[in-house]
Amino acid sequence: MEIDSEQSSLRPMLCELNILTRSDGSALLTQGETAVIASVHGPVEVRLQHLSAEKAHVEIHFRPRSGLGSVSDRLLENLIRSTYESTILTALHPRTAISIQLQEMQDHGGLIACAINAVCLALVNSGIEMQYLVGAVHSVLDADGRIWLDPSDLQAKDAQARFTFVFDSVAKKTVSIYTHGRFTPEQYHRALRLGTTAVDEVFEFYRKIVAKQCEVL
Hints:
The chain has one domain (13-216): GHMP Kinase, N-terminal domain (Ribosomal Protein S5, domain 2). Helices cover 29% and strands 32% of the residues. The protein has three helices and nine strands; from the N terminus they run E-E-E-E-H-E-H-E-E-E-E-H. The model is unreliable at 1-6 (pLDDT under 50).
């Protein structure tokens, strides 16, 4: 099945680094009309129950735009934590914690991918060492079997399945995968192939943001 240009293009991305003054690194990232602020504190003192002589403890705190956190918010925290526990060089900072705060500003589709990408940019801004950068891509499967890449919430409202793939910047292998809904193996692999191609746009965006930061410095 061919996928037209509308279905295979990412929404525009915008980013501002150092958005918060009391953090070691921060980033405001928008993807389409979805917006997230990520901030990084650390390495900092770790709570005794999380102390490790071998590595730093990575903690993620997600705050929704309004109200108290839900079960899905805790799921998002766990997904991001597992992604960055394997990405950050935690062995360089034993007996410490790296605390990452996420604030949802707007959610108009693809919140998980936007949050993961915002954290990556905030970590780059903080100077904390990573094995590689990671980029997340969101897509949905509609009732007609079409894959829509990075859709808005309106485009995705009747989605049959949702996919979020997280890739590393070196070999473009999957670091984390989040799926929801019903889909066939063929549909899954089609979404994966589309994400593998589209993530190049995310990494190119990172390069532009980092180059812009270096010019300012």
